[in-house]
Each structure stands twice: as structure tokens, then as C-alpha cells.
């Protein structure tokens, strides 16, 4: 019986150790399950955040595409305006040349008329009115012809 007592008492002594080990393992498993649960929650949160960021980028892409059309139209209008302004500048240059020619012709006519009058006035006084008229008409004709060329 003593040997039975010893085996019983050694079983009692080892029973608390295996119970403690079981409890420790159970605690570790529960702890690890808690960590796994926390990680799963964090992974789900990251997944949700990535999904939200994806939606933001989709919305941003939509906004950029919507604004792209007015920007393209603005660029087209600017290019068109530049061409119109260039054409206007060219027209102004041509008008300036034409105006300069006209002023030049007008000035020639005025100068020739003044010269003719300065010559015709003494002739009219000296030769008479008929000669002055003929001389004046010829001077005007000459000044008109020279102003054309």
C-alpha cells in the first residue's frame, strides 16, 4: 500500500503541474486568439480605408475628366483668339500702308496745287483771266496725274 500511496501521492503532485501547464496553454491560446482577433479587425479597417481611398481616387478622376473638357475648350478659344488677333494685326498693317499711300497722294496733290496756284496767280495778273484759268486747269490736271503715280 505504501507503493500505492506513493504512486497516488506522486500523481497528486504531478496533477497540479499538468493542470497548471494546461491553464498556461489555455491562457496562451486565449491571448493569441485575442491578438488574432485584433489583427483581423485592423486588417478589416485597413481594407475599408483602402476601399475609401479607392473611391476618393475614382471621384477625383471623375472631377478631372469633367474639368478637362472646359479646359480643352478654353485652350481652343485661346488659340482661336490668337489667330484672330494675328489677322487683325495684319489688317491694321495693310490699312496703315494704304492710309500712308493715300496721305502721300493727297499731299502730292496739295503741294502741286499750291505750286500751280503760285505760278498761275502771277500769270493771271499778267496775261488775264482766260490764261489763268487754262493754266490753273492744266496745273490741277498735272497734280492729279502725278498724285496717282
Explain how this protein is built.
The protein has 149 residues and is mainly alpha-helical. Helix content is 98%, strand content 0%. It is built from two helices and no strands. It has helices at 2-127, 129-148. Helix 1 (2-127) packs antiparallel against helix 2. It is rod-shaped, with a radius of gyration of 56 Å. Mean pLDDT is 75; it is low at 1-9.
The gist of it:
This protein is mostly helical and 149 residues long. The protein has helices spanning 2-127, 129-148. The longest helix has 126 residues, at 2-127.
Give the fraction of residues assigned to helices.
Answer: over 70%
In sequence order, what are the helices and strands, one letter per element? HH
| Helix/strand/pairing category | mainly alpha
Largest pleated sheet: none
Residues in β-strands, percent: under 5%
In round numbers, the mean pLDDT is 75
Distance between the termini: 154 Å
What is the number of helical segments per DSSP (H or I, 4+ residues)?
2
Oligomer: single chain
SSE layout and pairing:
Elements lengths: L1 H126 L1 H20 L1
Helix pairs in contact: 1-2
Features:
149 residues; mainly alpha; single chain; disordered N terminus; rod-shaped
Amino acid at each position: 500500500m505504501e507503493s500505492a500511496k506513493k504512486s497516488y501521492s506522486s500523481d497528486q503532485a504531478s496533477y497540479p503541474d499538468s493542470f497548471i501547464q494546461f491553464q498556461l496553454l489555455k491562457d496562451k491560446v486565449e491571448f493569441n486568439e485575442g491578438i488574432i482577433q485584433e489583427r483581423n479587425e485592423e486588417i478589416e479597417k485597413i481594407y475599408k480605408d483602402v476601399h475609401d481611398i479607392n473611391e476618393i481616387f475614382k471621384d477625383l478622376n471623375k472631377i478631372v475628366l469633367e474639368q478637362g473638357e472646359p479646359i480643352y475648350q478654353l485652350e481652343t478659344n485661346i488659340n482661336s483668339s490668337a489667330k484672330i488677333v494675328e489677322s487683325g494685326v495684319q489688317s491694321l498693317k495693310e490699312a496703315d500702308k494704304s492710309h500712308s499711300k493715300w496721305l502721300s497722294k493727297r499731299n502730292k496733290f496739295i503741294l502741286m496745287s499750291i505750286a500751280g496756284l503760285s505760278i498761275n496767280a502771277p500769270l493771271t495778273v499778267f496775261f488775264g483771266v482766260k490764261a489763268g484759268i487754262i493754266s490753273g486747269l492744266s496745273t490741277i490736271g498735272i497734280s492729279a496725274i502725278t498724285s496717282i503715280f
